[in-house]
Write a structure and sequence with these properties.
It holds the Pfam family HTH_17. Keywords: DNA-binding. By secondary structure, the chain is an alpha+beta fold. It has a domain of about 50 residues: Arc Repressor Mutant, subunit A (Orthogonal Bundle). The protein is built from three helices and three strands; from the N terminus they run βααββα. A three-stranded antiparallel sheet has the order 1-3-2. Helix 1 crosses helix 2. It starts with about 20 loop residues before the first strand and ends with a helix.
Length: about 80
């Protein structure tokens, strides 16, 4: 069965505050969204979450991530 192209995961941010660093780690985002690190990495590779990879490590720009959270939770 194929996944729909408009797949939008349900994001329910936790009560944790995000670090003030300009780039977040996969662990930061996984704790904040209460999802596994594997799920966050999959969403990054699919382009659902904005991010970039340096060698083997993913980084998520904090500002873009918060904009995406706001966009998805304000619907």
């Amino acid at each position: 069965m194929r996944k729909a192209l408009c797949y939008a995961p349900k994001w329910t941010p936790g009560k944790m505050e995000l670090p003030m660093y300009p780039n977040l780690t996969v662990n930061d985002v996984s704790v904040y969204l209460r999802k596994s690190e594997a799920t966050i990495k999959r969403w990054l590779s699919e382009g659902i979450i904005p991010g970039f990879k340096i060698e083997r490590e993913w980084f998520i720009p904090r500002d873009k991530f918060l904009q995406e959270i706001e966009r998805r939770t304000s619907i």
